[in-house]
Design brief:
SR1P; elongated; 41 residues; alpha+beta; three-stranded mixed sheet
Length: 41
């Protein structure tokens, strides 16, 4: 089982099937995207 984690806030974004346990880091998730848009305004 694999997990995709946001590297900004460490929230779990998604789980996926894999032969071994894997953690992948994404640049941003929907939570970070909303907070970044609010900060830019």
């Amino acid at each position: 089982m694999g997990t995709i984690v946001c590297q900004n806030c460490n929230n779990t974004i998604e789980h996926f099937e894999d032969e071994k346990v894997t953690v992948l880091y994404s640049k941003k998730c929907c939570h970070c995207d909303h907070s970044l848009k609010k900060e830019e305004k």
